[in-house]
C-alpha cells in the first residue's frame, strides 16, 4: 500500500510543534513519533490528515531519568535499560513483546500509549471496507460488532499502557493551554473512537513512574497469533506487593486487549490482603477476573478462547511473580 500525500513538519522543540499545530488545525493534523502505528493506518486510508508534525527532532523527550521516561524513548531502549530491567521488569516485558525487533527500534513509548484501537472491521484495506460498508470508526455510521450507532468497541491494543496503569504511572502532557499531568488510569475513555482525554494540541512529553514501583514485583503476559510480530489478543499486567513472609499487601491486575481501554480489576486488589499468598488464592483471583472479562468479538481469535486465556495468563503471571 502506498502512503497518501501529506505535508511533513519537523519542529525542533515542543513549543514549535504546538505552534505549528495551531497554524494547521483547521486543515487537520496528526503528531507522529515512530510512525509504526499511524502510518499503517494512513496506508489503509484510515483518518488521514493533510499535515504530519514529526516529534523526531525534539531532543527534550529522548531520555530516561529517575523513572521519568521521555515520550520519544524507543521500546527497544526501554527493553535494554538496566534500571528498568531491575526495578520495573513488567514494563521491560511489555515493551519487549511489542511487534518485532524492527518495530521496537522505531516505535516510541509515547506512541505506544496512544496507538489507535483495533478491530477486525476497521484495520482493513479501503477495498475490504467498501465491500462491506465499513464501520462506525471508519466511513459508516454503524458498528459491525454490536450493530448500533452510539459507540465504538474497537479494542485497546497497547502493550505498555496496562502495565503503566497497574503501577499508577502518570503522563505529562503539554499543549496550547500549557502543561498538565494526568493519571494513566484516568486518561482513557470507553469509546474506541475518542480513545482518550488528550486535547488535540497536546503532546505527551513524559511517562512518570512512581518511585514505589521499585518495591513491587511486576510482570506482563500476552497472547498473540505470531509470537514474533503481533498485537495482543489478550494481555495481563500485574503489580504485586508482598512482604518478606509472602503476605499480600496489594495486587493490581490490569487487562489489555479485552475492552476499549486498560481494565483495572479493583475487586481483587485487596481480596486476600494480609494473608500469605498461596496457589489456591492465585486460582481464585484468576477465576474471578476471567469470569468478569467480556472480550468483544472483534479480533482474530474467538471470544470464548480469549476469555479463557484471561484466567490462564493471570494464573501464570501471579505464580511466576510469587515464585521469583
Ligand atoms: C507489524 C507491527 C506489529 C505491531 N505490534 C504491536 C504490538 O504487539 N503491541 C503494540 O502495543 N503495538 C504494536 N504495534 C504498533 C506500534 O508499533 C507500537 O504501538 C508503537 O509503540 C507506536 O509508537 P510510534 O512511535 O510508532 O507511534 P506513532 O505511529 O508515531 O503514533 C501513534 C499515535 O500516537 C500519536 N503520538 C505519537 N507520539 C505522540 C506524542 N508524544 N504525543 C502526542 N501524540 C503522539 C500519533 O499521532 C498517533 O495517533 C505494531 C506495529 C506494527 C507495524
Keywords:
324 residues; 12 helices; Enolase-like, domain 1; alpha+beta; globular; 2 domains; binds flavin-adenine dinucleotide; Uridine Diphospho-n-acetylenolpyruvylglucosamine Reductase, domain 2
Walkthrough of the structure:
The structure is a single chain. This protein is of the alpha+beta class and 324 residues long. It folds into two domains: 1-57, Uridine Diphospho-n-acetylenolpyruvylglucosamine Reductase, domain 2 (2-Layer Sandwich), CATH 3.30.43.10; 59-114 and 155-323, CO dehydrogenase flavoprotein, C-terminal domain (Enolase-like, domain 1), CATH 3.30.390. It contains twelve helices and twelve strands. The chain has helices spanning 14-24, 38-43, 75-80, 82-87, 89-95, 101-106, 109-113, 126-132, 160-166, 184-187, 279-292, 303-323, and strands at 7-9, 29-32, 51-54, 64-65, 68-70, 170-175, 178-183, 203-208, 217-223, 234-242, 248-256, 263-264. A five-stranded antiparallel sheet has the order 4-5-8-6-7. The protein has a four-stranded antiparallel sheet with strand order 9-10-11-12, with helices on both faces. A three-stranded parallel sheet has the order 1-3-2, covered by helices on one side. Strand 4 (64-65) and strand 5 form a beta hairpin. Helix 11 runs antiparallel to helix 12. The longest helix has 21 residues, at 303-323. It binds flavin-adenine dinucleotide.
